[in-house]
Design goal:
It contains five helices and no strands. The chain is mostly helical.
Length: 193
């Protein structure tokens, strides 16, 4: 397909989708680097292989999966022309995103309460990786929440229709990526000890 063909709207949509995928690929590369370093670092003497992830991380996994479902339902509702349902699902998604971040910080509190820190004499390289990977994911989720707020605002202004919902679709794609990324990370840190 010739990418120079099409209406200005089609070209604009392709450009926005391409930018999103470039961003997603760069995030994949970053997390691949950190998880690779995690694997390589397991051979160090100060690796704490007996440390388990806090329960709050597993609860947050359930929450982020639910939020992906609600974002999917919001997209489905806008396609069906059901603006009220779209609004409801978007707000529920936002609430679940905030709950996810709250549970992540509870997980950090659980780690600290057990005597594990990001750095310092009671830390280990494994704990540093767990804190780093989870914190960077939280930062990306904050970006997802900002994009979700933009989607909610645009939906409130009536900018999405059953035929034109590119912004909502891009926001949903990014959100689903963050969901799958966290699922991968929590499974990785659970089973790669």
């Amino acid at each position: 397909m010739d990418l120079t063909q099409g209406t200005p709207e089609e070209k604009n949509a392709r450009a926005k989708k391409m930018m999103l995928w470039f961003g997603i690929v760069s995030m994949i590369m970053s997390f691949a680097g950190w998880t690779s370093a995690y694997i390589v670092s397991r051979s160090r003497d100060d690796w704490a292989s007996n440390v388990d992830l806090p329960q709050a991380f597993f609860y947050s996994t359930i929450v982020i999966i639910l939020s992906s479902i609600t974002y999917f339902l919001a997209k489905k509702s806008v396609k069906e022309g059901k603006g009220g349902k779209t609004k409801l699902w978007l707000w529920i998604t936002l609430g679940l995103g905030v709950v996810f971040i709250s549970l992540q910080f509870q997980g950090f509190s659980q780690l600290v309460a057990n005597g594990y820190y990001f750095t310092g004499p009671t830390s280990s390289i494994k704990m540093s990786f767990i804190f780093l990977i989870a914190m960077v994911h939280i930062l990306h989720l904050v970006a997802g929440i900002i994009s979700l707020l933009v989607v909610i605002y645009n939906h409130g202004k009536g900018r999405y229709t059953a035929q034109n919902y590119l912004g909502l679709s891009l926001g949903a794609t990014f959100w689903h990526f963050l969901d799958f990324l966290w699922l991968y990370l929590v499974l990785f840190m659970t089973f790669v000890k």
